[in-house]
């Protein structure tokens, strides 16, 4: 079984990857996307998004990281794929699943699911550019407005030479609303000879087991569930006990210390509130605490609330 951390734009940055890989036995982490338009991007763009490249493409705890690219022009995607590999990325991934309106309006992400031939051309160009020993992978949804092209898109990725395919089991229109339609992944997995990775609505170890039973996949990708239950991958792979609220609060304070030691503090309030929006699903205590801290706008105020909450738990 493999468990892979999904590339969640604006959520799973290098610090979050560091934190989560330090407490989970992930097999692979995929970065937020590098936006490719019409040129070969400078090294600094890749290093800013994926500083792990300065460490051989690994997190401090030793988990491999794969750079993800998002774009619509095959030659540019190929050139930037090769640059990512040269810089140390463990393979390169193509994003055909992002549902963001801004991205879709500029012909990137899930909008390309309407055009299987374009997907094929992009993946083929990347595969031809990248040496055979390095994986070239892709992540798709089941479709854009509907799911009518789900198999065509999967075949396009495979026939272009991809190493493996991750499928988020919803269309762009479905967004993130439950359910995830795992049965579509089953059809793709039965059709394609390359590994297929199942993604969508995996919130706990029981969900992971059911997903693998339904799809027949031995690899899963987790996203929102990995943020709402920080040691989710560990519970899936080893049967570890899910983190308590005290464990999670301690992890948030560890994240806070590392965030504030290396970044501008004005970035922190929005990020920590965003994390609470995921934690609310798993921990009732998170909702209670968020109601207290959401009125605060400064880093100092929010940190004080978190530290007081931890003190209260230890008393």
UniProtKB/TrEMBL annotation:
It is an enzyme of class 1 (oxidoreductase). Pfam families: Dus. CDD domains: DUS_like_FMN (cd02801). Residues 4-307 form the DUS-like FMN-binding domain. FMN binds at residues 68, 139, 199-201, 223-224. Gene3D superfamilies: Aldolase class I, Dihydrouridine synthase, C-terminal recognition domain. Its cofactor is FMN. The record marks 35, 95, 176, 271, 273, 278, 294 as: Interacts with tRNA. Keywords: Flavoprotein, FMN, NADP, Oxidoreductase, RNA-binding, tRNA processing, tRNA-binding. Its EC number is 1.3.1.-. It catalyses: 5,6-dihydrouridine(16) in tRNA + NADP(+) = uridine(16) in tRNA + NADPH + H(+); 5,6-dihydrouridine(16) in tRNA + NAD(+) = uridine(16) in tRNA + NADH + H(+). The active site is at residue 98. It comes from the Bacteria. Belongs to the Dus family. DusC subfamily. Catalyzes the synthesis of 5,6-dihydrouridine (D), a modified base found in the D-loop of most tRNAs, via the reduction of the C5-C6 double bond in target uridines. Specifically modifies U16 in tRNAs. This is tRNA-dihydrouridine(16) synthase. It comes from Shewanella cutis. The gene is dusC.
């Amino acid at each position: 079984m493999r468990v892979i951390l999904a590339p969640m734009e604006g959520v799973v940055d290098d610090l979050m990857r560091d934190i989560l890989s330090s407490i989970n036995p992930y097999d692979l982490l995929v970065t937020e996307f590098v936006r490719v338009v019409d040129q070969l991007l400078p090294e600094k763009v890749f290093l800013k998004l994926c500083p792990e490249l300065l460490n051989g493409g690994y997190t401090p705890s030793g988990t491999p990281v794969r750079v993800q690219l998002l774009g619509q022009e095959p030659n540019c995607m190929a050139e930037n794929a090769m640059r990512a590999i040269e810089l140390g990325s463990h393979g390169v991934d193509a994003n055909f699943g992002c549902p963001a309106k801004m991205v879709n309006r500029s012909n990137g992400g899930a909008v390309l699911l309407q055009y299987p031939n374009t997907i094929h051309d992009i993946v083929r160009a990347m595969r031809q550019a990248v040496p055979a020993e390095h994986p070239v992978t892709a992540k798709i949804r089941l479709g854009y407005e509907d799911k009518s092209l789900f198999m065509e898109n999967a075949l396009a990725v495979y026939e272009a030479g991809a190493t493996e395919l991750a499928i988020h089991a919803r269309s762009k229109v479905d967004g993130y609303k439950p359910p995830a339609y795992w049965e579509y992944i089953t059809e793709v997995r039965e059709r394609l000879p390359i590994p297929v990775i199942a993604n969508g609505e995996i919130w706990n170890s029981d969900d992971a087991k059911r997903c693998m039973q339904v799809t027949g996949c031995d690899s899963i990708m987790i996203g929102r569930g990995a943020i709402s239950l920080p040691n989710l991958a560990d519970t899936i792979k080893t049967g570890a006990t899910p983190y308590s609220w005290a464990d999670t609060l301690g992890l948030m304070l560890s994240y806070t210390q590392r965030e504030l030691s290396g970044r501008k503090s004005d970035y922190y309030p929005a990020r920590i509130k965003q994390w609470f929006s995921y934690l609310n699903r798993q921990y009732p205590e998170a909702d209670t605490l968020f109601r207290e801290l959401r009125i605060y706008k400064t880093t100092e105020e929010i940190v004080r609330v978190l530290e007081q909450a931890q003190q209260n738990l230890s008393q």
